[in-house]
Structures are given as structure tokens and as C-alpha cells.
Amino acid sequence: MPKRPPTVRRRRLGAQLRKIREERGLTLDEAAALLSMSKSAISRMENAQVVARTHEVNYIAMMYGLPEDDDLRVALVGLATGGRSRDWIRRHKLPGKGPNYGEYVLLEQDSSELFAYHADVIPGLLQTPEYARAVMTSVPSSGAKDIDQLVAYRMARKEALTRTEPLSISAVVGEAAICQWMGGREVMIAQLQYLLELTEWPNIELRVLPFTATRNPGVDGSFAVLHVEAGNFPIVIVDGLQRRIFIDEDEGVAAYRAIQVELRRIALTEAQTRERIEQAVWTLRTGAAGGNSR
Questions:
Q1: What is the pLDDT of residue 139?
Q2: Which residues are registered as beta bridge partners of 170?
Q3: Which of 107, 115, 108, 111 is nearest to 205 (CA)?
Q4: Fewer CB within 10 Å: C terminus or N terminus of the chain?
Q5: pLDDT tens profile 180-224
Q6: Which residues in 242-269 are b (16+ Cβ under 10 Å) and which e?
Q7: Is residue 1 assigned to a domain?
Q8: Whole-prediction pTM value?
Q9: CA–CA distance, 54 with 76 (Å, rounded to integer)
Q10: Is residue 66 part of a domain?
Q11: 244 - beta bridge partners?
């Protein structure tokens, strides 16, 4: 069985430890002498080949001269420790779904902010159970076996929205996401009404990118940007059926942040978005768009 690749956190921690060592002008041999650790142990840690324990990271940061209250030291310890996701994953068993799915969910639970852009589907954390089921069953080759378990897991992820310090969400969805009859008329009406409720929440901002927009900065595809508290870093997630790409390099994150700004600028305002969703509900109820509810 092939070894699982290192997690985002482990890779980032290793890169940060190597950067700090090099900034201090230390070779691996010199660092080994300073830390009373083997050269190979430090190398494996810096190359994300082993899991660095919290006390080890705290000790290395101290020996490299980082004060206890230094932001970088706090971030390093956070990368080794993880955040609130440790308790969350104990209560919710991870279903076997998709590439790197578990890592994404843990990062999501440990984040303070989320930006999501989807051209033709409502973001997972804003979905009703029935809508989520319709989305999951839409892709025959998704490999999903226990739909009930997957739906329940997606609903459990929404605990992030109501915890003591709730996740703040800013989302832009294409107008197609509120116009397609995903799951049928009644499922879609309930989903849109749920969105209207969520737009009243102080930690949720939703905007629709209208069909009339003459440009779309997100034409390359859906993506999400998380700000992870445990480690204090932003990360971009580009999702696909067979792979999930994590981007945490400064240049890559900056590129997607620029798209995020443009999408929010071009999209309808929050008030206009509510009006457009209300119009979509009316269309579904009256059958003004034609079609059927199957």
C-alpha cells in the first residue's frame, strides 16, 4: 500500500522550520548540535516525513530564539497541535469520500473564515439535507455508497456555523445555482427558502453572480479560500471529482484572493441577491419557468 502524502499542516510546518533555521544561518549539523537532536530527525521533520509533536516544535522554536508569545511560534505550535477539529472528528466518523476529503473538512473546522465560489451549485455548508442528497446522487461515478452517511456528515460540518466563535462565510454562486431544479421543485424551494434564512445570519454573506454579468473572473472553476486559525494561514482548495488541490504558497493564494475580490465586486449586492432568490422561489411555486418537478 502506498504511503499517504503528508498533510497540508505537516508540509507547512516543515517548510517553516527549515526557513527559520536557514534565516538563522544554521546548517543541519549546527542545528542538530544546538537542539541536541539527530541531523536525520531534523531533516525528516523539515521534509514532512514525520509527525512533529507539540512539545518538539515548542522546544525547537524556543532554541531558535522565538519568544513564547511570538506570533510565529504560536502559529508553529498551532500547526503541530491542530485546532477544534480534534474534538470534532472524535464525534463524527469520517466517511470514505473522495481525495483528501478528510483533510479539507478538518481544515474547514479549524478555520475562522471561508470564501466559496460555485458556478452551478449551492456551497455544502449552506445546503439542506434533501438538496445535498440530490447533489451527491447526481454524479454516477462519484463512488458514493452510503448516501445517508454522507448527507449526515455534511450536515454535521455545519456545526462550524453555530459554534461559540462561528465560521464566517462569504459565498458567490452563479445564477444557475438558484435556477436549476436540483432534486425537484419542492427540494429546490426548500433550499432557496433556507438560503433566505441564512442571509439573515451575521456570519453569512451570499451573493449571486447574475447571467447578465458581462465577465466572470471565476470562469476557470469553483474554489474555496480558508483562513486556518490553527497555524494562522490561508489556503485555497480547488475541487474536482478525482482530485483536490491545496494551494498555500503566497503567490497562488494571492491570485485567488484577487479573483475573490472581483467576484464580489461584479456579483449582485446582498439585497439584490435576496430579491433574486425570492424571485426564483416565486418562479418555482408558480411554474412560470415551465418544466416538471421530477
A1: 79
A2: 115, 205
A3: 115
A4: N
A5: 999 999 999 999 999 999 999 999 999 999 999 999 999 999 999
A6: eeeebbbeeeebeebeebbeebbebbbe
A7: no
A8: 0.86
A9: 9
A10: yes
A11: 239
Q: How far apart are CA 282 and CA 144, in angstroms?
A: 33
Q: How far apart are CA 52 and CA 10, in angstroms?
A: 8
Q: Containing H/E element for 205? A: strand 204-209
pLDDT band at 97, cuts 50/70/90? low
Cα 118–120–124 angle (5° rounding)? 55
Nearest alpha-carbon partner for 58 in 44, 79, 37, 73: 73
Query: Which cell numbers hold the place of 97?
Result: 469520500
How far apart are alpha carbons 191 and 196 in whole angstroms? 9
Residues 207 and 223 in one domain: yes
Is residue 72 included in any domain, yes or no?
yes
User: What residue numbers bound the domain in which 186 lies?
Assistant: 85-286
What is the domain count for the chain? 2
Torsion over CA: 248, 104, 174, 266 (sign) = negative
Least confident window among 58-67, 76-85, 150-159, 185-194:
76-85
Q: Which one has a higher pLDDT value, 243 or 38?
A: 38
Q: Are residues 89 and 211 in the same domain?
A: yes
User: Running DSSP on this structure, what letter comes out for residue 226?
Assistant: E
DSSP secondary structure code for residue 182 in this structure: T
User: pLDDT value at position 2?
Assistant: 46
CATH number of the domain within which 21 lies:
1.10.260.40
Please give the Cα distance from 15 to 11 (Å, whole number): 6
Query: What are the distances in angstroms from CA 160 to CA 153, 171, 218, 258?
Result: 12, 15, 26, 26
**Residues 57 and 76: beta-carbon distance below 8 Å:** yes
Query: Which of 36, 66, 81 delimits the end of a domain?
Result: 81
Indicate the helix (H) or strand (E) that contains 236.
Answer: strand 233-239
